[in-house]
Design brief:
alpha/beta, about 5% strand, 7 strands, 5-stranded mixed sheet, 25 helices
Amino acid sequence: MNQQKPTDLLQNRISSIFSPASFRDPGLWGILLVQIVMNGFFLSKRTLWVDEAYSAILARRSIAEIHRSLRFDAGPPLYYDLLHIWRYLFGESEWALRSLSLFMAVFTTLGVYLAARRFWNRRAGLFAACFAAFTPLSAAYALEARNYTLFAAFSLAFGVSLIRFIRQGGRRTLIVCALSALALVYVHNMGWFIGLAGGLSALLFLRDRKRWLALLLSGFAVVLFYLPWVPTLLAQMDNTDRTIDWVRNFWSPWAIVNSFSSFIPGGYTLAYLQLPAFPYGMQAVNALLFVIIFLLSAVSTVREKDRCAAMIFVLLSGGLLGPYLYSLWAAPVYLAGRTDYGVFPFLCLIMGFGLSRIHWRHVRSAFLILFLLQASIVNGKFLLHDDPFSERDGILYLQRQAKSGDVILCTGLTRPSFEYALRSKDVVFLSYPRDMEDHLAHLSESWYYKNLDLLQEAEAVLREAAQKTPPDSNLWVIYSRRKINEPLYDLIDGGRLGSAVGSISIPRLGLRKLSEPLFLLRVNPNREK
């Protein structure tokens, strides 16, 4: 009886990754259907918060304008370019804009299943798909008009195509790998760390010199096609102090631990996501269970000499350690539960692999049931709860009260949500500080305290508002009681450049990103020069 060599067997499994049998799996379609229904029903439940509304505003501009605007951002343009095209196809409602993220999340779940099934078996594929679809952090990002699910999808495409090329070569596979890598670094700056981890994987596992040279040349091609973006990247770095310097406040030496916790139901997440967290004792027990599966996956990788699993471990580890070490030695760029999301598909694959290696069916079932139960609790609370602070009530008020010609002066980060929601109104938007016009969703207040005379800035913006407000129109100020806004409020309260006709405080009106209350001031501007 002829036996296939292990390498031939592995190549056959990888080459059949998109076989029709994989797509006929009822378990897969059940998972995808639940993911689509669960998230699709809630796509428009909440108003777009600051970062999402910023995405929507950028997507309305031309491609050239998007790229110019990103000089004051912190990331590449591909997501905004795709969203620009997406809105032409599906509109710019909250549901339409967020549906791109859901589409990429479903694509990632499908890709995780196909990869795990062909690398190992159907059971590993279903387990990995469950983690990809129902982990609360994944569900949260599937509902956001941001680039995170696109980041994860291209990370997975790059990783799988790289593994396939290392194992069996192929020109088409190399082209897919190179294009995925290029898309990856044009979606998120953290993509470079995943790309470097891929290079390390090739160093460790690729023995064919011709393939090595081809892969190296494709890497040079990726760098070459990235060069046009470098001037904008350098401009972003120059503007870091007044845009994303706040990241330093969220950096922690425990970032990698927090990353693993954020991928577990009820674990650590950034406050603005508003995902419910379990008590610390329960988080510790959950973490222990996941660590056991993770270690079992590592042991199985070594014992079975499974190169696919080994390469996924390298991609996962490099994608986390790279930005962690950069943050430790240079400038903080690593945010657990956010910029680490690109490695999430690799963790799903590792967990699916480890769980599939448990021989006791009841143990596997118990772990999966526990995961799904906890994920359902967290996802249910997240999807059904109302935001304690939201721009929605203020938006509804201005939709009724604001009229054509009115001027709306937004302080700090308040502008994006209101500008998006009131896009059909013929109103004029201004920002305080004025240069917030250039970076609507990024604000490092400490930079303004050091580099700007805030009283002069408040005087200038109120004079501009007075000039642009017609006599029979209103000037609205969206205000929060932050230190940076005090000069503006003092000028209005003192009547020097305007006087408040009315102050509107709506119970749940607030800025979601900072969980702080907002106020609407209707101001009678002093039009004297």
